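SEQUENCE AND FOLD
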Amino acid sequence: MTWLVTGGAGYIGAHVVRALLQDGEPVVVLDDLSTGQSDRVDPAAAFVQGSVLDRGLVRKTLREHGVTGVVHIAAKKQVGESMADPLLYYRENVEGIVALLEACQAKGVDKVVFSSSAATYGLPDVELVDEDTPGVPLSPYGESKLIGEWVLRHCERAYGMRSMLLRYFNVAGAATPELGDTGVFNLIPMVFERLEAGERPRVFGGDYPTPDGTCIRDYVHVADIADAHLVAARALEDGRPGATYNIGRGEGSSVLDVLRVVGEVTGRDTTPDIVERRAGDPARVVAKVDRIREGLGFSAQHDLRSMVESAWAGWQQRHP
């Protein structure tokens, strides 16, 4: 079958395209290049430049390339930006998935893998977050992802579509240096940026109820994220019913843990400046990953050091 990957020129999308192609699947990429880069698109994939909001273009793409399944990654994804401009996020993320699914329904495409987010959970007060933890998102970004899940579930009941909803946690690393994260919105690239500027990394809050006082998160390698999408796509091909899965390692790393590993990998001094907490940061968010391991046989394979090493290789290539 042929998979359409929306957002396939972005950081996560390019890794998913790579995984599908390496597994022998024909792939079509749809990306408006607002944040993606055309040179990330594997030459083995067909490329269509445009937005999922362009209903005519999406229908044409599905028809002309014989698409039989969709991996929907295209979205705006910055929490702070969503707070400042919520209408942008509801238009791009909510109207975007509605437009995409209208085209899928019209063309008989009934298999969807949806890139959702742990942001749908909000501030879960639990040791491990499982898929049944109530979703109380704190931002328009998190809400837009949760609404996308609702839309897909209703489409399952109404139209017989099957969808895999993948809620992934803190993504890091790169499969190859050229596919590294070009944004500076996540902890590891933010630390790299400070070090390159000759400044100390900043830690937002050192008095959380955790062993070292800093926030704990579940970091997962982007190559594992891509493999999870592949496994989910294969399950839909095999006729499996739709489901919701966390994608993480099931292990927590504190901010100071990450800084220690960054220091070991880069050889730089990562002694931080402790500054005030950021509003809305929970002390601990770590995934429970039993469901996807038992249901799809998937487990993340890369550890934190692998994430930092691969991210640093990509950073050095972009900042020689």
About this structure: The chain is about 40% helix and 15% strand.
